[in-house]
Amino acid sequence: MSLPDHFELFGLPPRFAIDLDALERAYKDVQAHVHPDRFASGTAAERRIAMQWATRANEAYTTLRSPQKRAAYLVERAGVPIDAETNTAMPPAFLMQQMDWREALDEARGDPAALAEVRATMNGEREELLAAIGHAIDESRDCAQAAALVRQLMFIDRFASEIGHADEAMHAVARVGVTGR
Asked: For 145-168, how does the pLDDT look when each residue is reduced to its tens digit (9 = 90+)?
């Protein structure tokens, strides 16, 4: 008997578009059944198996909760590797957009309004990309296209992290300026 995949574990259809509330409820239900505390007085083997199932449930939940991880999981589940480390080919328009975003971020450092504008622009592009990924996986069933879009999403999510760091740095400087330390 093979182990259930992430979707089977939670009784969800294997789709990019999922009901996050249903995922949350299913996760809590699975955790209630396999949580190691329920097996504290059990045998060592029962405790170990409970720990393995709880770990598996946590991993599945984390994967399905994240749009990027969920998309990558679905694509790889269909037999199409993401190959983010080795396949760095991107459409020229996306490469130009990356350069524009990086330039805008450099110019926005220290300016809250400009940084918010860069974030809003990037978030809009991210939402469009998520819709395209959903269409490629759920409607077109084009996992090769979805894999290429997931690689773009990975860049956007890393760039969002850079925006967050720039925002944190700006607030740290403001706090130092206020406290004088």
From this structure: 999 999 999 999 999 999 998 888
Q: Which residue has the tokens 């490629």?
A: 136
Q: Are residues 134 and 58 in the same domain?
A: no
Q: Which two tokens stand for residue 33?
A: 């059944």
Q: Which domain does 100 fall in, by range?
A: 92-179
Note the pTM of the prediction, 2 decimals: 0.84
For residue 29, tell me if it sits in a domain.
yes
CA distance 30 to 44: 21
Which is it for the CA torsion 165, 167, 171, 173, positive or negative?
A: positive
- Alpha-carbon distance of 8 to 150, in angstroms, equals 23
- Whether 77 maps to a domain, the answer reads no
**Same domain, yes or no, for 100 and 169?**
yes
For 80-95, write each residue's pLDDT tens digit.
999 888 887 888 999 9
Measured CA distances, 3 to 6, 8, 52, 82, 95 (Å): 9, 9, 12, 23, 40
Q: By the 8 A CB rule, do 130 and 92 touch?
A: no
